[in-house]
Amino acid sequence: MNMSPETYKKYADARAPKSPIAKDCFRAFLVGGLICAAAQGLVQLYTRVFGLSKDDAGLLASATLVLITVVLTGLGVFDRIARFAGAGTLIPITGFANAVVSPAIDSHSEGLILGVGAKIFSVAGPVLLYGTLAGSAWGVIYYIITLVQKVM
Question: pTM, whole model, 2 decimals?
Answer without folding.
Answer: 0.69
